Amino acid sequence: xxxxxxxxxxxxxxxxxxxxxxxxxxxxxxxxxxxxxxxxxxxxxxxxxxxxxxxxxxxxxxxxxxxxxxxxxxxxxxxxxxxxxxxxxxxxxxxxxxxxxxxxxxxxxxxxxxxxxxxxxxxxxxxxxxxxxxxxxxxxxxxxxxxxxxxxxxxxxxxxxxxxxxxxxxxxxxxxxxxxxxxxxxxxxxxxxxxxxxxxxxxxxxxxxxxxxxxxxxxxxxxxxxxxxxxxxxxxxxxxxxxxxxxxxxxxxxxxxxxxxxxxxxxxxxxxxxxxxxxxxxxxxxxxxxx
Amino acid sequence: xxxxxxxxxxxxxxxxxxxxxxxxxxxxxxxxxxxxxxxxxxxxxxxxxxxxxxxxxxxxxxxxxxxxxxxxxxxxxxxxxxxxxxxxxxxxxxxxxxxxxxxxxxxxxxxxxxxxxxxxxxxxxxxxxxxxxxxxxxxxxxxxxxxxxxxxxxxxxxxxxxxxxxxxxxxxxxxxxxxxxxxxxxxxxxxxxxxxxxxxxxxxxxxxxxxxxxxxxxxxxxxxxxxxxx
Lengths: 291, 230
What we know:
By secondary structure, chain A is α+β, with helices and mostly antiparallel strands. Chain A is built from 11 helices and 4 strands, in the order H-H-E-H-E-H-H-E-H-E-H-H-H-H-H.
């Protein structure tokens, strides 16, 4: 108990002796943890959206209304038999009208003007692998029952490529900042321990263990890391709440993260920063403290 | 208590600090480790508290095989030893009492124990009136006394003193030696490294004389003649 009170008191004293250095360390932890949080959240959002797209419609085959419904049925069966296809749904004129009305519900003028008879029937195709959309388009080319084929795959692919690049860039940036934070924590601890070199030397000769000498420095690093990560997670959660606001969620991305994942991410960031502080303080005190 | 067996110490550059030293120091002895600067006195002491590791030979201190002692067990060895260096190494921002209390706090004593024992130690080294002074307000001799009191905080079996009188005038040196003898009479083994012949010749204790890392003389009630003649 007596030893614990010494360690706790000394930890706070170390921070009070170098307030600017401690603040700089905490800020760098905030930046790196915030970037890590945002990057991982962004990755989760993209994965969620990708999964949504993958379960959605990948190819829409608009049918020629001049051809008989029997021909339409035969075409549906034929597409269904392709190995790349998971499912094909027939979409009637009535369903097309219903969908149109839903999509343009805010534009009543437009709805009044439209002749719904011109909306074509269609086949909505869901693929096992959305990137195979071109194979379907090629096979349907020249088919007399087909008026037009449209695929969302290309647009999705472009979007995914762009998002992957963004995630890679953010991960690289977060790693660089994390490395800087690591060096900064180690350096803060090294400076603090250097300032206390006489005290450390005395402790060594009277028989204090390396761990005991090191504990205040370890606690200091952990405390700074934890404060930084708590602030970073707070900012991250705030940002997610802000952008998942309906104004933003009408965009192509559905900005949603489950509470479970958010908790997991928060714990992960806390644990990582804890580990970070431990390792950085170990390296920061290695030379001076070893008995 | 302390057994050196064929101890040699060669530094990385090849310079020999100690060469084939074998000697025993028993419980309650007072030993002067003498010799000129660079003769190996500090290395002799540092090997005892495992600040240096010998390149050859074995050493036993208070029943512990120092060579085989794992790094994490070194503090256990050092708690059985009191170490006083030439520089007292006192914390400038703490009073005399706090300097001694700091050592005791590190060793796990309770505040009550610290209060009682600090006062006893200050009384033993005869600086009880300086308890609330800072190191800079003390004379060199008083600072050495504080360092001795701090070294005694763990109630060591052996007190290792590496030229504690090196920076003191003859009168203060003599007082420190008297204090160390008082501690020795209370049962603590004392090994004091010095190159001050006047102290050694007046006190007539066992001497171990080193020269270029070798024991050239080990005598009870020995004398130290700088020119080398006994």
